[in-house]
Write a structure and sequence with these properties.
Elongation Factor Tu (Ef-tu), domain 3; 6-stranded mixed beta sheet; 2 domains; SH3 type barrels
Length: 174
């Protein structure tokens, strides 16, 4: 899956089903969206299957429950059916997401971008991002792995989706 920049058909993983709640088929959901409740705004999810398929499922209800989220999915009406979904990733297609605000980016759009520094040295490719308390961190895979804080206008100077590149202010020896 090519994720260099916004592409309408690209699957964007938003979370994962991590457990069951009650006996009526509700599932516990871990959300990677911010705020976490945003995952419940999508009326249809694509659920990863062991076969590699991503069939759609309608979300018929959802809410915060304690520190987490729970959701009700069409066709899932008991605890045993819900249990079969544990570990399944939840996704939507990229075109279902609202446009990012200026200067904001979806993590999935950054994955795959080539990263170069001010001196023109290629540092590698964005492999994934890590959420930390202070700020997000780019994990850049190249001749070695680098962890670069995703701080716009400090370390991240330019993101160019058309060119598939990101420019950073980062010493290649760090």
């Amino acid at each position: 899956m090519n994720q260099c920049g916004p592409q309408a058909g690209t699957l964007i993983v938003l979370g994962e089903i991590v457990g069951v709640h009650g006996v009526q088929g509700w599932v516990k959901v871990y959300s990677w969206t911010r705020p976490a409740e945003n995952i419940l705004e999508f009326p249809e999810w694509l659920l990863a299957q062991p076969s590699g398929d991503w069939p759609p499922v309608q979300v018929t209800g959802g809410r915060r429950q304690g520190k987490g989220l729970i959701a009700r999915l069409a066709g899932i009406s008991d605890r045993d059916s819900a249990r079969t979904l544990i570990g399944r990733q939840v996704a939507v297609t990229r075109d279902k997401l609202p446009p990012a605000e200026p200067g904001e980016y979806y993590w999935a759009d950054l994955v795959g971008l080539r990263v170069g520094n001010l001196e023109g040295i290629d540092l590698g490719t964005v492999d994934h991002l890590i959420e930390t308390g202070a700020h997000d961190v780019l994990v850049v895979a190249g001749e070695r792995e680098r962890l670069i804080p995703f701080v716009p206008d400090v370390y991240v100077l330019d993101v160019d989706f058309d060119a598939g590149r990101m420019q950073v202010d980062w010493d290649p020896d760090d």
